[in-house]
Structure formats: C-alpha cells, structure tokens
Design a protein that fits this description.
The complex is a heterotetramer of chains A (118), B (491), C (324) and D (493). Chain C is an all-alpha fold. Chain C contains 12 helices and no strands. In chain D, a hairpin with a 2-residue loop joins β1 and β2. Classes of the chains: A mainly alpha (118), B mainly alpha (491), C mainly alpha (324), D mainly alpha (493).
Chain lengths: 118, 491, 324, 493
C-alpha cells in the first residue's frame, strides 16, 4: 500500500469531486446543480491530469535537452472532456432559461409542486 | 475498396450528413435526406454483419495501429447492435415525417433533423468503437443531442424531463470517465482489446474494483437500470413522438451493449463473476426492475409513460439473462435486445399515430380507439401482446429463452419472477384493450385513421414483431454465436 | 517549494468548493466557480499540463461563467433554501467518495515514473511522435493525429451543443427588429478605452494560438475560444449590435458547419486518396508534410467551429426575451 | 388433393373466412348481412374439407407437415393422430350447427358488433383445428393461446361492465394459468427431454424421476386452465355473460374441449401411460378431479340460473375426462376420448335450448320455466335428450363414455373413481330431472302463455334439433369415434 504522502493529492481531488457531486444531488436550484456538476467534472479532470504527472518531468513539448516528459495522453483526453463539459453546460443553461419561461422558477421543488398540482 | 472502409463510414456518414442538413430547408427534402442516410447506414450495418462471419474486423483510424490510435473493432455483437439501431432508425424515420411536421416548429426543422442524425451517429459511434475513451466522446454526442430532442416535446414537462436526464446522464458519463481513467491508470491503455489483455495481467486490485464499480454505475445510469431509471419515464413520455420511438428502440439497447462489452470483453467473466458477486447483484436489480417497474406501468394513465416503465422492466429481463452467465441466458438477453427494440419501436410509432390524430396519449384518448383508428389500435394490441410474450410474437421467443435459462440454472424463484412479470404485463395491456375495444358508448364514433405514411412503417414494425417471432433463423443464430463468443465457449 | 505551492493551491480549491456549497447567492457561486476553474488551471500548469491549463482557464473561467451569468440575468439571482433531506445525498456522496478512496489505495504513488500509465502507449508518443508526426508539441500530435478521431468527436460535440441551444432558445428569442434597444456598457470610458486596446491584441493572440499550436501550447480549440472571447468582449462593452450585424445567426451557423465539414472532409479526402480515415500520410508525397497539412486543416476546422459556436451561444442567450 | 393439403386447408379455411368477414361482413344483402352467409359458407366448406380428410386418415394415410422452426429444434409442426382427428370432426361439425344457431340468436336479440362476433368465432375455430392437428407442445401452445385471445372478445361481447368483468376473469385465469404454469411446464419438458413431440409412449419417461413427475404433472394439469379443474374453474361461470352461441362454443365446440383434449394429449403422448401408472402424483390428480366432479355437481344443484347450472355441470363433466385420462387404463383412455365427443353433443344441445328459451321468452332462471315444455316442445325435447346424455341414461350417448369409464375403474381397481361416478350420476340426475319436471309437469304461473306454442326462430330450432339428433345417433352408431379411439396408443393393450 502506498503511503499517505503519495496519495494525498488524489484524496483532495476526491473530496472536491464529492463536494461537486453533493451540490448536484442535494441542492434544488437548477443553476446551482450545474455549477456543482462543473465542479465535479473539473475535479475529475484534476485526478486525470495528476496521473499523467512524472516527477521531475516537464510539459510534453519536445525540446532538445534530455529530459523526461509528463504523459501527454491524459492531457489530450481532458482537453476533450473540458469541451464536453462546456457543451453540457451550454445545453443545460438553455434548458434552464426555457424552464424559467415555462414555470417562472428554477427551483426544483417549485417545479415539482406545479407539475403535481396539474 | 469501399468495403474496407465500411466500419468508419458507418459513423462518418450520418455524422457528415448532420451538419449538411442545414443546407436543406424544405421539410420533405430534409426527411428524404435523413431517411436516405438512415437506410444507407442500415445497409452498411447489414454488410458489416455479413463480414463478421469471416472474423473480427479491425479498422485503424488515422492509420495508427491500436493501441496508439483509435481502433474500430467490429465483431458479431456490435454488428448486431448496429443493425438494430440502423434498422429501427430507418423504419422510424420512414414513418416520421408527418408527426415531425406536426410536432416540431417549422423553423426548427433543419436543426431537428441535424440533432436527430447526430444522436443516430453518436449511438453508432458508441457501438462500433474499440476504444474506451472514444465511447465517452460519442456517448456525449448522442446524449447532448437527445437532451435537445427530448426538450422539443410540446408539454412543458419535456423541459424538466430533459434537464433531469441531462443531470443524470452527465453524472453517468462522469462516472464512466472516472472508470475509464482508473482502467487507464492500471494498464496504460485505452484500447478495449488491449485492456482486456492487460487488466488480468495487472492482477485484481482495489483500483480495478473501483474502476469496475464506477463503470458499472455509470453505464447503469444510461441503461436506466433500476433504481437508476428515474429519468427515463418522463424523458420518453414528453419527448416528441418520433423521438420517443427512436430512443425507446435504440438508446437503451446501446447502453446494454456497453454493459456487455465492458463486463465480458474488458473485465472478463473471470473477474466480474468469479471475483465479484456480479451475478447476484444483477439478479437482484433485475428482479426489482421487472416487478416494480411493471407495477408502476399498471397504474400509469399516460400511455407513453406506461410503455416507458415497461421498458425499464424489459431492461430487467435483459439484465436477468446476463446474470445467469450461461449461453442460453446470454442468448435470451441478446435476443431480447433485438426483439424489445422491435416491440417498443412499434408501440411508440403507434402512439405517434395516436398523438397525431388525437393530440394526446392519455387513457382517455384511447376510448373507442379500436373503432376510430382500427389499424393503429391493432398495432398497439399486437405490440402489447408481444410485450406479454404471447406466441407467434418476438416476445415469446425472448421469454422462452429466458425461462429456459432460468430452468437450466435451477433458479425457480427467477422463473416465478419472469412469469409474474409477464402476467402483470398482461394486466396493463388488457387495460388498453378494454379501453380501445370495449368502451361502451362508442357506436357513434367516426373513423379517423392515421395517414398511411405513418401506418405503413408502424405496421412494418408490427409485422417484424410477428415475422421474427416465427422465423428466428437470423436472430437466434446471431444471438447464440455472439453469446458463445462472449462466454468463450467454442463449439 | 513546488509542493508548498501545490498545497496552497489545493487548500484554496477546498475552501472555494465548500464556499460554493454554502453560498446562496448564485452570482457569487458563479464567480467562485470561475475562481475554482482558474485555480485548477494553475494546478494543471504545475502538473505539466499547459494545454489543459490554457483550455480550462479559457473555458471554465471564461465561457462557462459567461453562459451561467447570462442565464442568471434571465432567471433569478438567489437560490431558495432547499427543504431537501440532506441525509440521502450525503450517504450517496459518502459511499461514492469512500469507494474512490478505497480505489486509490492500490494506486501507484503520485508522479511515480514507474507507474503503468507511463510504461505503455504513452512512451511511443514521447519517443516517436516527432519522427512520425513532426510536431514538437506532443499533445498536438496525439490530439490531432494519433487520436484525431476523438478530436473530431469533440468538434461534433461542440457543434451539437450549438444546435441544441439554438433549438431550445429559438422560441424565446427576440424578433430581429426588437434587438437594437439592448443595453451595453459603451458609456464607461475606462472600460471602453481598455477594450479598444485589448480586443485587437486578443484577436491577434488567438491567431497566434491557432497556428502555433504545433510548437507550443494551444491549438484550434483554445484559439477558437479566445477569438470568441474577443468578440464577446466587444459585444459587451462596445456594442452588441455591430457583432450581431457582422455575425448574423445564419452566418455563424454556416461557419460552424464549415468547421465540422472541413474536419470530416479531411478524413474523406484521406479515404479517397487510399488511406484510412484521417490518415494524413497520404495527403502529400512526404508523410510528414501530409501530417502537417492534415493537422493544419483539422485544427483550422476546430478553430472555426469553436469560434462560431461560442459566439452563437453567447448571442443566443443575449437575445432571449426578458419578459416571460 | 393430398391429405396434407386437406389438413392445411382445414386450418386455413376459418382464418380466410375471418378475413373475408372482416372485410365485407358489414355489407347488407338480401336476407341479411354478408357476414352470415360467409360464416355459413365457411363452416360448410370446413366440414367438407374435414370429412374427406377423415376418410383418408381412416384409410391409414400418414399426415405430417412441418412449417417453420421458430426455435432451433422445435418446429411448428402439424400431424394428425386419432384424437386430434376426432376433435377436428367434432369442432367442424358443430360449427356448422352453431353458425345456423348464431344467425337466429344474434338477429333475434339485436346484438351489436356482429361482424366482430363472426370474425372472432371463425378465428377460434381455426385455432381449434390447429390445436387438434398440433404435432408438438409448442405448436399446440400457440393455438391454445390464440384460442384464448380470440374468444376473449366473444365473452366481452356486450361491452358493459358486467361483460368486461366476466371477460377479465376469463382471460386472467386462462392466460394466467397458461403463461404461469403451462408455458413453464413446456419449457421444462423441453429442457429435460430435448423434444416436445407428441410420441406414443411419452417423451419424458426416461428423463424424470418421482418428485419432478409430480411437479410437472401439476404444472400441466393446472396450466391447462381450459380443462377447468377446480379451483381453476371460475372462468366458466364468469363467461356466462356471453351470448349463448359463445357459451356453446366455450362448452361444446372448442374451448373446454381444447382443454381436456390437451390434458389427454399430455398424458398419453408426453408423460406416457407407463410413467403415470405408478406415480403418486397421478393419484393426487385423481383425487382432485374426483373432488372437482362431486363438488361442481353439488354447486350445480343450487344454481337457479339455467346457464350457470349448465356451467357447473360442464366443470364436473370435464373432470370426468381428466379423471379417466389419469387412470391410464385402456378402457379409461377410451372413455376419456369418447367423453369429449359425447359431452360436446349433449352440452351444445343444452345450451342451444337455454338460448332458445332466452330468445323466445327472455327467461334465464329455472324457477321461471314452469310449463315451458308445452310452450316450447322442440326446445325442451332437445333439452331432455341432452340432460339424459349428461346423466348417462340410454339411448343418449352419455351412457357410452360412462360405461367405458366404469370398465376402466374395474380394470384399475380404483374404487374411489367408481364411487365418484356413482355419486355424480345421482347428482346429475338430481339437478337435471327437476328442470324437466318444472318444464313439463308444473303449470305455468301465467295462464295466458299456457298451452300456446311459442318456439324460438327457425334457425335456432333447426340447430338444436340437429344436435339432439346427433346425441342420439352417437349412441346407436358410435363406430367412427370408437374406430378412431382404438387407434390411440395405450388403448389396444
């Protein structure tokens, strides 16, 4: 088993992920949920990138000197994931605007009440 | 030459067609173009399925060999799923024009078709790829477009349904992302085939277990596996009719495929079923899905929601088949994958006809429908009987194999559950029948049948429900060989 | 020293994240999220992921925040206290978190060069990509060539989002003639002057990022976002009308289609030239030249689509009618 | 035309008829609706197909046809054996009579949705023919389910709450038992034996031991809800809401006959007499059937509603077949097979008579029937013949099967069954003879009606006269059924 100092980075990221996740599932405001989702995802990105890190390594842009590079693959993946994240946020925001127009609120609970009263 | 590139064309064709839809403005052109693309995709899928007879097809995108580049890898399993998605897509589109014109704003039509094709391409992309991360990318293409498609429903609840789906779907996708990351961490690769070889070498570890757990939960969310199904009923219920028909026939099937792929190909039976109690977990979830979702369906008065709940239950049957870990069990799941796609596409297409003529799909709209729309209602009844598993329909074949698997496994409790599920399904189907045929005071009703352009595709699907319930040479042989391949049983 | 910075940054992240949970003012939450994003970007830099840092800063702190703020302007700023039961979410989160922590216990130590991730697949990118693709920036090589197909998917994702937002907002947008009376910040002299100086530089920088991605951090995506940011800044401070007149929705739409089609088109051309889809080697006599051309074109496609879509997203939100 | 063609034709004719009726049925022509003519023509065409088929079969033609293979190893497979041939003859013969009767009944009572009625009727007959000619359990199951589904609309025909409720019970029990038990039993059989073919001597004998025999036997017997073994009998009284021709279809022509037919087939060809001969479970079924006979007869005794009394009589008569089959002695199998025919003719006569009374006088309760014998002599004469057949008094055909059954009990020394038969015969007499007494001896309450002839419409009278005649004829000329039955495995030992 690895020691605490080898892993604390991961644990902090996990804490951050869970904070975001908590906001998504526990809070009722639609915008707030998406903020939580973003925090959740950004923290996952941190986890990914951290696994590509090589101690003493440098950014994976080739230079003449004989150095070790960090793993570029997670970077590529996360670039894609960031784009996916913003795309999701955009769609979510558009939905929220429409929900506001349709229900006059963006609180989950009030929406449920309106639907239930039908 | 072109036959070598079919794997990539399978996805690129609709993917390229999607933005090109913007060039077209006329509704008829848009429809014809989308239909053409769907049918061409189905042709490609069919020839891919033929090609897989000779073995697995591998296509290195960008000319980079796997695992450095992204590989498209087609075996019987995904060729079969590709055929389901494209086949259903084509038939739904064939009958979709009028319904789409009625339910979608005319100024949004190009964008609607664009989104539809994106969703279509996304589902195909998930199915065909041999790269774990590529699954995530195409998953998001299909998800984002389906959120938009669902939100276009006329009822304002379509918006909240789409939002709920968006949140659940994104959580699922993020879980999948975490799972992929951990698998990558253990093995250093993203290629599924490579993962399959390197994961056992890495030996089981806590990281692997976590990767498995996150993949499983993530995929289950997309699959609407009980109890993670909460997004599905509303999403199917309030989406535009054609979107419901398309998604009900395809989206969850692709999710089941992903589940199979990652359990059987990537992690392997050894790990998933020997080291983990996956069998028991799947069984429990399946039982709950079958019984509880069917019960919910019985009390539902919105037809689309009713059939959406029934979908959750039917997914339970598929998962139950997997849990037996036998050739028969897996065959039943794979058969049901195909058969259920046919049933639900037929039913939701018929509901699209009802929506088109009646403007609603509540129980009340069904009163006397057997007279008013005899063909449409007959389609609903046959689709319903197929759900129950009455002989001469596809549902019977699925149920036969599932029960056979349960009997072979000596699991008589599960036999009882499956039978109980069928009988409960009989109840909700019969509610419809009574409403449509035996509602008193329906003598004065005039006929208002749906237009032929919608009826014909609906009936093609209905007839497919019967045809594949009688001539099963295609489905059973593919399902069986695939099941044997997945289980590593060679005959 | 490096570790100390790390720990401080991580500490900040934790504080910000908790603050977002507590915060009831949505506007503040968004700003906090922007800060969270920027801090993450800083950590990305310290983790050698410069491209990612660049993108996170531009997207998380930039575009995402703008989109959420635009939404807040149309909805409400304050979150109502939730009467949700806290127990169930808390349990879910605890179980999920515990599973993850459990999973880390067998993970290789942080930054361990012997970890499996560094031993398979990645070494080839580091060792051979220069010979095979000819780019100093390995991330660009992998992004645009080895895994160019993922990137194509990414462009399609952005395009999809554009389509989705247009579909969603079409029914609540102003008509063309109602648009002129929207407010802008033209009357703030300082803002105006700074913007007038800054905007050309931003656009120039975007061009640099677009075409220099082969050598340094950056590429089509980052460039597209920066381009869009420049125009958005212009729209917010100097005048949205001119932006709107220049970039009509139709035009933007065409642009974003062009980008996607350009990317896929490159793939189709490689197919026609007898290679696999997106195998740039066949684009020219010399393999590396082919790679160069291929990457140039697809990055251009990415840049065009991203610029157009981002701008279109911003404009779509700005045109939503305020009255319900 | 070859025998196979005739067989296929005989199944196809009713379905084709159904399609024609559906398409053109509502058109009016001189003398009624097209649907009536079409029904008559179809039913006669069917009879004219089945009779030459019977001839060819009696000459020893082997008739076998495989259609498709929906599940690898299991074909949709048709072939004719004696029992099926007999059943097909009964169904097609009675359909002709029943059609004539239906026309009279449906017209006189101004029933709605008549096109649907004739269509479903034809489908039900087609399914019955298919069931009779099924060569394996899967094929049989398919037609069995088709029969349940196609008769549902007939039961729910009136469309009012009562009809819907009755039809719901009908369907729930029939499909519930067939999906819940029968299907399971079939799949289990398949997984044990690797075949579902009906084979002389049975297919299970080598594959199962005692506990499984019992469980499977129970699953089969209770899975075949159409055989109405108690407590799965509730659907029969519930289905009494249907118009009388439908009751005739259920009780005589098709549905319950399909049930006991399936029971017989399963016992003879799936288990095989040898397997059951010394099975404990078979004894249990025997006791349950005996119990069912006595209890149903007792309940019948207390029913004032004529159709309900007849329904409970059917329940008890069906268990005769089951109990005879489960004895698996040569004579008892003969009795079981013969009773299918005998009961069909007798019971259809009784229902026709009940319907005739209803059509002419709108009376449904036995206590209202005082003096009706003088008012409707043809009807009540036929009723008397039917009743005698049920009790088992010569010269009605009912005597024959009871006789063989008693012989069977001597063969097997099952004195329990012997006792049951005696008690039940007494009970039968006790609930049928008072009806005759009320009808013929007692004086009507309403003196005006007294003595005036007031028969039902002609088609009805013709129909019930034919069936009553057949009931008598069968007693004097039982050659054809007996010749067929002698061809059954297990009879000629």
């Amino acid at each position: 088993m690895s020691s605490f100092f080898d892993l604390y980075n991961y644990w902090i990221f996990i804490f951050l992920m869970m904070t975001g996740f908590y906001i998504v599932i526990a809070q009722g405001n639609l915008v707030k949920k998406i903020i939580g989702l973003n925090i959740f995802q950004t923290s996952v990105f941190l986890l990914y990138i951290s696994m590509g890190k090589v101690s003493g390594g440098t950014a994976p842009i080739l230079i003449e000197a004989d150095v070790s590079y960090s793993n570029p693959l997670p970077h590529v993946l996360i670039l894609t994931a960031i784009v996916v994240g913003v795309a999701t946020t955009a769609v979510a925001m558009a939905l929220i605007v429409r929900i506001q127009k349709a229900y006059g609120t963006i609180e989950e609970q009030e929406i449920h009440e309106q639907d239930a009263s039908l | 030459m072109i036959s070598n590139h079919l794997p990539v064309l399978q996805v690129v064709l609709p993917l390229l067609a999607a933005p090109l839809c913007v060039l077209l403005k006329r509704s008829s052109l848009l429809w014809a173009f989308t239909l053409l693309v769907s049918i061409l995709s189905a042709v490609i899928a069919w020839s891919l399925l033929q090609q897989t007879d000779a073995g697995i097809i591998s296509y290195a995108i960008g000319g980079w060999a796997a695992p450095w580049g992204i590989e498209y890898r087609v075996d019987k399993l995904n060729a079969y799923v590709l055929l389901i998605v494209t086949g259903i897509g084509s038939l739904v589109m064939l009958g979709g024009r009028k319904s789409i014109e009625q339910e979608i704003d005319s100024k949004n039509l190009s964008l609607f078709y664009t989104a539809y094709l994106l969703c279509f391409a996304g589902l195909l992309g998930i199915t065909i790829t041999g790269d774990a991360f590529n699954v995530f990318v195409f998953l998001e293409i299909s998800s984002l477009s389906s959120y938009a498609l669902i939100s276009l429903g006329r009822d304002r609840r379509a918006l909240t349904a789409a939002y709920q789906y968006l949140v659940m779907g994104t959580i699922g996708a993020t879980f999948i992302l975490i799972g992929i990351g951990m698998m990558y961490m253990i093995t250093g690769t993203l290629n599924m085939h490579d993962l399959a070889q390197r994961l056992p070498e890495a030996g089981s570890s806590r990281t692997m277990l976590t990767a498995f757990a996150f993949m499983f939960v993530g995929v289950s969310l997309k699959l609407a596996l009980f109890p993670l199904h909460l997004w599905l009923p509303n999403a199917y219920a309030y989406a535009p009719s054609i979107v419901s028909a398309f998604l009900a026939g395809t989206a969850t099937k692709v999710a089941v495929y992903v589940l199979l792929r990652f359990i059987f190909t990537i992690f392997g039976i050894e790990y998933a079923f020997t080291e983990l109690p996956l069998s028991a977990i799947l069984m429990l979830l399946a039982i709950a899905a079958i019984l509880l979702a069917t019960m919910s369906a019985i009390y539902e008065s919105n037809m689309k929601r009713l059939f959406a709940y029934s979908s959750v239950a039917q997914l339970g049957y598929m998962v139950l088949g997997i849990s037996f870990l036998s050739v028969t069990g897996l065959t039943s799941s794979l058969l049901h994958l195909f058969n259920h796609a046919l049933m639900k596409a037929a039913l939701f297409m018929a509901l699209a006809c009802v929506m088109y003529q009646q403007g609603g799909v509540m129980m009340d709209n069904l009163k006397g429908l057997g007279r008013r729309m005899p063909w449409t209602f007959a389609a609903i009844v046959i689709g319903g009987l197929s759900l129950v598993g009455v002989p001469l329909t596809v549902g019977f074949i699925s149920k036969w194999y599932l029960l056979l698997a349960a009997i072979e496994a000596g699991q008589f409790v599960l036999v009882a559950v499956v039978l109980a599920g069928s009988l409960l399904a009989l109840i909700y189907v019969w509610k419809l029948v009574e409403q449509g045929y035996f509602h008193s005071g329906n003598e004065s009703i005039t006929r208002q049948e749906a237009p032929l352009s919608m009826l014909i595709p609906t009936w093609l699907l209905v007839l497919a429900n019967i045809y594949f319930g009688i001539d099963t040479s295609l489905t059973i042989s593919v399902a069986q060989t695939t099941a044997e391949q997945l289980l590593g049983v060679t005959q | 020293m490096e570790q100390a910075i790390d720990i401080i940054l991580l500490g900040f992240l934790v504080v910000v994240a908790i603050a977002v949970v507590k915060q009831r003012d949505l506007f503040a939450s968004v700003i906090l999220f922007g800060i969270y994003s920027l801090l993450s970007a800083a950590i990305f830099v310290s983790l050698d992921a410069v491209d990612v840092a660049f993108t996170e800063a531009a997207v998380g702190a930039g575009i995402s925040s703008i989109l959420i703020l635009s939404t807040l302007a149309l909805t409400s700023r304050n979150e109502k206290p939730s009467s949700h039961s806290v127990f169930l979410p808390l349990m879910v989160v605890l179980v999920t978190g515990a599973t993850l922590v459990f999973g880390t216990l067998d993970m290789p130590a942080f930054a361990d060069p012997e970890a499996p991730v560094h031993k398979h697949v990645a070494p080839r990118y580091i060792q051979d990509s220069y010979q095979e693709v000819g780019m100093p920036n390995i991330v660009t090589s992998v992004l645009a060539s080895y895994r160019g197909y993922d990137t194509m998917g990414e462009v399609v994702v952005i395009f999809t989002a554009g389509v989705a937002v247009l579909l969603l907002l079409s029914s609540v947008r102003h008509k063309e003639d109602e648009l002129s009376n929207l407010t802008d910040l033209k009357h703030h002299p300082i803002l105006l002057n700074v913007a007038q100086i800054l905007i050309p530089i931003i656009l120039l920088f975007a061009l640099y990022v677009q075409f220099h991605g082969d050598y340094g951090p950056g590429g089509g995506f980052q460039a597209g976002v920066i381009f869009a940011a420049g125009f958005i800044l212009y729209a917010m401070i100097i005048g949205i009308d001119e932006i709107r007149k220049t970039f009509t929705p139709k035009y933007l739409h065409w642009l974003s289609v062009t980008g996607v089609v350009l990317y896929i088109g490159v793939g189709i051309v490689t197919l026609l030239l007898g290679g696999e889809f997106l195998n740039y080697n066949v684009l020219a006599e010399e393999k590396l030249t082919g790679q160069h051309w291929g990457i140039f074109l697809v990055e251009l496609g990415v840049g065009i689509t991203v610029t157009a879509t981002m701008l279109s997203l911003f404009l779509s939100f700005s045109e939503v009618r305020r009255t319900p | 035309m070859s025998a196979v063609d005739l067989m296929l034709l005989s199944i196809a004719i009713p379905f084709v008829g159904a399609v024609l009726i559906l398409s053109f049925g509502s058109v009016r022509i001189a003398g009624g609706h097209v649907r009536e003519w079409l029904s008559v023509i179809t039913s006669i065409a069917l009879l004219l197909t089945v009779l030459p088929l019977l001839e060819k079969f009696m000459q020893g033609a082997s008739i076998d046809y495989r259609m498709v293979e929906p599940i690898p190893g299991i074909w949709l497979h048709l072939s004719i054996e004696p029992l099926g041939m007999m059943f097909a003859c009964i169904a097609s013969l009675l359909w002709v009579v029943n059609t004539i009767y239906s026309i009279g009944y449906m017209r006189s009572n101004n029933e709605k949705n008549q096109t649907r009625f004739y269509v479903c009727f034809a489908i039900a007959i087609g399914s019955t023919l298919g069931l009779a000619f099924s060569a394996n359990l899967l094929t049989l199951f398919i037609f069995y389910e088709l029969l349940s589904i196609s008769t549902y609309p007939l039961v729910a025909h009136k469309g009012n709450e009562l009809a819907k409720k009755g039809a719901r019970t009908y369907l729930a029990i029939l499909m519930g038992s067939s999906i819940g038990f029968l299907l399971l039993a079939i799949i289990w059989t398949w997984s044990l034996a690797g075949t579902l073919d009906f084979r002389a001597g049975g297919i299970l004998s080598e594959h199962i031991g005692e506990p499984v025999i019992g469980i499977l036997l129970f699953l089969f017997i209770y899975g075949i809800g159409k055989a109405a073994l108690m407590p799965l009998h509730k659907w029969l009284p519930a289905a009494m809401v249907a118009p009388t021709p439908v009751s005739a279809l259920l009780h005589a022509v098709a549905v319950v006959k399909a049930g006991v037919f399936t029971v017989l087939k399963v016992i003879i060809y799936i288990f095989g007499p040898a397997t059951l001969a010394d099975s404990l479970a078979a004894d249990w079924i025997m006791y349950l059937a005996g119990f069912s006979i006595v209890l149903a007869s007792t309940i019948a005794l207390f029913q004032d509603n004529l159709k309900r009394r007849l329904a409970y009589s059917t329940i008890s008569q069906l268990s005769y077949v089951t109990i005879a089959a489960i004895l698996v002695a040569p004579f008892s199998i003969m009795a079981a097979a013969l009773h299918i025919a005998v009961h069909a003719f007798g019971k259809i006569t009784l229902f026709f008579a009940a319907g005739s009374i209803y059509t002419a006088t709108h009376k449904t309760e036995i206590s209202q029937l005082k003096g009706i014998g003088r008012q409707m002599p043809w009807t009540m004469g036929a009723f008397a013949i039917g009743a005698l057949s049920m009790i088992g008094i010569p010269p009605a055909a009912g005597f024959l099967s009871k006789w063989y059954l008693l012989m069977g009990t001597f063969q097997t020394q099952e004195w329990f069954v012997f006792g049951v038969i005696i008690i039940s015969t007494l009970l039968n007499a006790a609930y049928f003879l008072p009806i005759l007494y009320t009808a013929f001896i007692e004086k009507a309450d309403d003196p005006i009606a007294q003595g005036t002839m007031q028969e039902a419409p002609l088609p009805i009278v013709i129909a019930l006269t034919i069936t009553a005649g057949l009931t008598l004829l069968l007693f004097f000329l039982p050659d054809i059924p007996l010749q067929l039955i002698n061809g059954l495995p297990g009879v000629k030992s």
